């Protein structure tokens, strides 16, 4: 691409992360936080070169790394918990 200015590289990286919907990797991230999003970790792994990296898929990566699918889970209310509904 021929981009040599580091500030321009940072802007392009930020916009790419926004388009892909991934969070910015923090270099001083505490270990008490949960794993980063799966797609961000996957793309970080795909950044390496080689046959193994080229053939790696997201589902293979998630399974091999033992990551969970972080889709929101809907939980049902407890049996004894009443649902309250008020008319508008």
TrEMBL record:
Q: Which domain of life is it from?
A: Eukaryota
Name by which UniProt lists this protein: Sterile alpha motif domain containing 15
């Amino acid at each position: 691409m021929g981009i040599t200015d580091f500030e321009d590289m940072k802007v392009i990286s930020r916009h790419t992360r926004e388009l892909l919907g991934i969070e910015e990797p923090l270099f001083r991230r505490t270990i008490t936080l949960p794993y980063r999003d799966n797609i961000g970790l996957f793309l970080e792994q795909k950044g390496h070169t080689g046959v193994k990296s080229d053939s790696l898929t997201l589902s293979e990566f998630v399974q091999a790394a033992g990551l969970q699918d972080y889709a929101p889970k809907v939980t049902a209310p407890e049996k004894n918990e009443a649902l309250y509904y008020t008319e508008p």
